[in-house]
């Protein structure tokens, strides 16, 4: 129970600031869609921006953090301040120079990274040249955001979740400022977004350094790579990096294939993914952030029973949130796309394509969310190999289905293949968790799950009826979305109380 309350407390903090960030992120996308639409410039920018984001996930919040946090948490739980400080400084030093090298290499060889990310651009000279220049501007962002994400993870271990949840807000604000105010000073205007990324990255890093100092954590360099804890981190690092690399390859593979499709396909994937990522960012990724340090601490005390209870509770809570979110997104997908994106140069055809992509992404939303509860369990027990194997197999599944489906349904096939691979990944890891540690989803989870499905069904029927009425009365997207979200939320909560879903009684 204590672990469950801790998870809820941490989740509420992270979700609150993440919600603000995601709302600003949607406003950011409104600005991008309004001023740039979906075409050559946006395709080039999204390809260029995805490259530093890939390395951020590998070396910031991904590989380094997943191998570092369990070892660091163990030293903090044991209250060995000298050991934990030495471990922190040494890993920080290694990450500092790795990211510095990658930033320099990326700047010098941007053409190579763009080529492997979007080979279809080789047949589109304008897009290729623009993507290379944008990548050169933004590659140093890897250094800034990588260190930012790492320091955020350290703060999480020390019970400080708000700073890490707040820093993405800075980037979204800079995006908006760049699109609205800096765009007129650049030609083409898309360069303003790249400049905004760099300014935002610098401010993000400064914000985390401030909180590290405020927490009285000594920030500095150490080259003691023979330290026992450091060796443990780097022992876990290789499979962890490999696993994250495979996951990122899944994302890059979609971009790679989309580069061979008609102009705008990469942008449709981006815009659809942004709406799909909204509930993931607010709740699923926030859950992963909240549960990881708690699980690491439980494994450090060898309390497997507590880990199992925390995993079941986190899974129940995630289903309770993500199932109604999926139903709502399916029912409102067309109105949401019209409301958020269909302004300025973003036209009705762009909106139709984006809504179609979103629908196929939603199919795998539940699996993507539940992965954020099962993967941290493996990382917490210092098993980085199993998630790697799952990621490799899911990549193969994604490649097979993506290549096959895009022949018939184009860009929609890429989104559907992604969903199929996510479902496979989750079920594979769930099975492995049971075989390795005897941890499985219990009766309490399935009772809550059943009640969640029933409440979501009631909500979906009511909201669909409300949408039909509002459309018949000729209401536009904004009132339809607002009324549907409010009515859906009230209906779902009431149904959950009537059904006595245990999740809302914690």
Please give the structural blueprint.
Blueprint lengths: L1 H35 L3 H20 L3 H15 L3 H28 L1 H8 L7 H14 L2 H17 L4 H21 L8 H24 L13 H31 L6 H36 L3 H37 L7 H15 L2 H16 L4 H25 L1 H27 L5 H30 L4 H23 L7
Helix pairs in contact: 1-8, 1-11, 1-12, 2-6, 2-7, 2-10, 2-11, 3-4, 3-7, 3-10, 3-11, 4-7, 5-6, 6-9, 7-8, 7-9, 8-9, 10-15, 10-16, 11-12, 11-13, 11-14, 12-13, 12-14, 12-17, 12-18, 13-16, 14-16, 15-16, 17-18
Report the major sheet.
none
> Which percent range fits the helix content?
over 70%
What percent strand? under 5%
| Tally of helical runs | 18
Q: What structural category do the secondary elements indicate?
A: mainly alpha
- What is the rounded Rg? 22 Å
Protein described:
- This protein has helices at residues 2-36, 40-59, 63-77, 81-108, 110-117, 125-138, 141-157, 162-182, 191-214, 228-258, 265-300, 304-340, 348-362, 365-380, 385-409, 411-437, 443-472, 477-499.
- It has 506 residues and is an all-alpha fold.
- It has 2 domains: 1-21 and 264-447, no CATH class; 40-256, no CATH class.
- The model has no long low-confidence stretch (mean pLDDT 84).
Short overview:
The chain is mainly alpha-helical and 506 residues long. It is 83% helix and 0% strand. It has 2 domains: 1-21 and 264-447, no CATH class; 40-256, no CATH class.
């Amino acid at each position: 129970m204590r672990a469950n309350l801790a998870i809820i407390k941490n989740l509420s903090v992270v979700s609150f600031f993440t919600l603000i960030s995601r709302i600003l992120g949607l406003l950011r996308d409104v600005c991008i869609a309004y001023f740039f639409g979906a075409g050559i410039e946006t395709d080039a920018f999204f390809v260029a921006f995805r490259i530093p984001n890939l390395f951020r996930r590998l070396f910031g919040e991904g590989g380094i953090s997943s191998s570092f946090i369990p070892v660091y948490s163990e030293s903090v739980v044991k209250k060995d301040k000298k050991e934990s400080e030495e471990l922190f400084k040494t890993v920080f030093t290694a990450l500092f120079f790795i990211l510095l090298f990658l930033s320099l290499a990326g700047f010098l060889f941007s053409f190579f990274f763009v080529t492997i990310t979007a080979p279809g651009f080789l047949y589109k000279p304008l897009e290729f040249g623009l993507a290379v220049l944008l990548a050169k501007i933004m590659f140093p962002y890897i250094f800034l955001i990588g260190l930012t994400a790492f320091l955020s993870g350290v703060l999480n271990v020390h019970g400080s979740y708000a700073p890490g949840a707040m820093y993405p807000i800075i980037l979204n604000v800079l995006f908006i400022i760049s699109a609205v105010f800096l765009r007129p000073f650049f030609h083409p205007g898309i360069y303003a977004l790249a400049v905004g990324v760099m300014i935002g990255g610098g401010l993000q890093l400064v914000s985390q350094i401030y909180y590290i100092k405020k927490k009285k954590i000594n920030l500095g360099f150490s080259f003691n790579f023979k330290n026992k804890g450091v060796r443990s981190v780097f022992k876990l690092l290789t499979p962890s990096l490999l696993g994250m690399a495979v996951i990122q390859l899944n994302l890059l593979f979609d971009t790679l294939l989309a580069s061979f499709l008609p102009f705008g396909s990469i942008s449709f994937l981006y815009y659809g993914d942004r709406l799909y990522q909204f509930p993931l960012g607010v709740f699923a990724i926030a859950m992963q952030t909240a549960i990881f340090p708690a699980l690491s601490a439980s494994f450090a005390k060898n309390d497997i029973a507590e880990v199992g209870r925390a995993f079941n509770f986190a899974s129940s809570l995630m289903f309770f949130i993500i199932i109604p979110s999926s139903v709502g997104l399916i029912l409102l997908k067309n109105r949401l796309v019209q409301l958020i994106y269909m302004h300025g140069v973003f036209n009705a055809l762009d909106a139709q394509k984006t809504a179609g992509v979103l629908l196929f992404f939603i199919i795998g939303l539940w699996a993507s969310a539940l992965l954020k509860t099962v993967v941290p369990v493996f990382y917490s027990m210092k098993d980085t190999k199993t998630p790697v194997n799952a990621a490799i197999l899911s990549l193969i599944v994604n490649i097979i289905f993506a290549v096959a489906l895009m022949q018939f349904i184009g860009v929609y096939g890429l989104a559907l293949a992604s969903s199929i691979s996510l479902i496979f990944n989750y079920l594979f890891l769930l099975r492995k968790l049971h075989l390795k540690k005897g941890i499985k989803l219990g009766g309490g989870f399935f009772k809550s799950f059943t009640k969640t499905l029933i409440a979501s069904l009631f909500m979906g029927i009511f909201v669909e009826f409300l949408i039909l009425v509002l459309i018949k009365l000729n209401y536009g997207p904004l009132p339809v979305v607002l009324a549907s979200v409010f009515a859906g939320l009230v209906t779902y909560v009431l149904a959950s109380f009537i059904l006595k879903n245990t999740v809302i009684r914690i």
